[in-house]
Specification:
Strand content: 15-25%
Order of helices and strands: HEHEHEHEEHEHEHEHEEHHEH
CATH topology of the largest domain: D-Maltodextrin-Binding Protein, domain 2
CATH superfamily of the largest domain: Bordetella uptake gene, domain 1
Strand order of the largest sheet: 2-1-3-10-4-11
CATH architecture of the largest domain: 3-Layer(aba) Sandwich
Shape: globular
Number of helices: 11
Helix content: 40-55%
Structural class: alpha/beta
Number of domains: 2
Radius of gyration: 21 Å
Number of strands: 11
Largest sheet: 6 strands, mixed
Distance between the termini: 52 Å
CATH class of the largest domain: Alpha Beta
């Protein structure tokens, strides 16, 4: 009987401790890591997300940029971060992919608490406005006739842009020259400056396309975009590929479930914020909400799919 009472007492103490912690959370600003450079589309949208979530939490959410390593430095930071809810990170799809390509300082299935899935990207292939290629087929035909001579930029090795371009190359039987950058700003500058032939990236190229300085050849979603309805999808030009890189928010492993719920609920309500929805629309990022449990399940599935894909493309590292 005494043992049972002690066990019940311990459970009650844990419950009330958790409840007290949740009631006090958040009592100070929260740091949200954006693993991309300042000024790019990802950074600007993340700042809108932070502002909208901060309103719901009645606390400031501070963006901390940690660009590099194909968007995985936020995940690296979670390994040693306190699981108190005050340090979070955006989790791009590369978090599930890069561990198959090289040694990393985190395990995506063990070192993170996945809190909520938020949105995804609109990707496309862009050339300069004065380029000889008017269609994606013309670009592929040229690449077939000139192996290794068509250079394309992405925001980093192992990103969805890089992997999808390699999928296309494998399916089309062509060889591209990949040039990785730290983000969309560098990528677009290299294209417009004539240093690369093609840019594969999210819609940081939109203003260049709309002004005519660049030409959008194909988009990678499941259907044509509202903004560029005359531009075909990869499926429409003969490739059964959809690539939109859903992303969300995660914290360190071992987070208190009550605190995790507070964070989830705040970011979920933020998805209804008019200013955030405007930012999503401006950068062509549709809402792709997933609960914490569903986002965790998505991560496990994506981790396994990427393992298979890296093996298929001959990119898997022998870690």
């Amino acid at each position: 009987m005494n043992v049972a009472r002690k066990a019940l007492g311990l459970l009650a103490a844990v419950f009330f401790s958790s409840a007290a912690l949740a009631q006090a959370f958040p009592s100070k600003p929260i740091t949200l890591i954006c693993p991309w450079p300042v000024g790019g589309s990802s950074d600007l949208v993340m700042r809108s997300i932070a502002e909208a979530a901060g309103k719901q939490l009645n606390q400031t959410v501070i963006i901390e940029n940690r660009p590099g390593a194909s968007g995985t430095l936020g995940a690296v930071a979670m390994v040693n971060a306190k699981p108190d809810g005050y340090t979070l990170t955006q989790t791009p799809i590369t978090v599930f992919r890069i561990p198959h390509l090289q040694k990393v300082a985190f395990d995506p299935m063990k070192d993170l608490t996945y809190l909520i899935g938020l949105t995804g990207y609109t990707f496309g292939v862009v050339v300069r406005g004065d380029a000889q290629w008017k269609t994606f087929k013309e670009l592929i035909d040229y690449a077939k006739a000139n192996p290794g001579k068509v250079s394309y930029g992405t925001p980093g090795a192992g990103t969805s842009l890089h992997i999808t371009m390699e999928e296309i190359a494998a399916e089309a039987g062509v060889k591209f020259l990949h040039v990785p950058f730290k983000g969309v700003a560098e990528n677009i500058q290299a294209l417009i400056g004539g240093h690369i032939d093609v840019t594969a990236d999210s819609t940081g190229w939109a203003s260049q396309v709309d002004s005519g300085r660049a030409r959008l050849l194909v988009t990678w979603g499941g259907e044509r975009t509202k903004r560029w309805p005359t531009v075909p999808t990869l499926r429409e030009v003969g490739y059964n590929i959809v690539s939109d890189s859903p992303y969300g928010i995660a914290g360190p492993k071992g987070m208190d479930p009550a605190v995790a719920k507070i964070i989830h609920d705040a970011f979920r309500r933020a998805l209804d914020d008019p200013n955030l929805l405007k930012a999503f629309e401006r950068y062509d990022q549709p809402v792709k909400y997933l609960s914490g449990a569903d986002y965790t399940a998505y991560g496990r599935k994506q981790f396994e799919q990427d393992r298979v894909m890296m093996e298929k493309l001959g990119l898997k590292a022998n870690n």
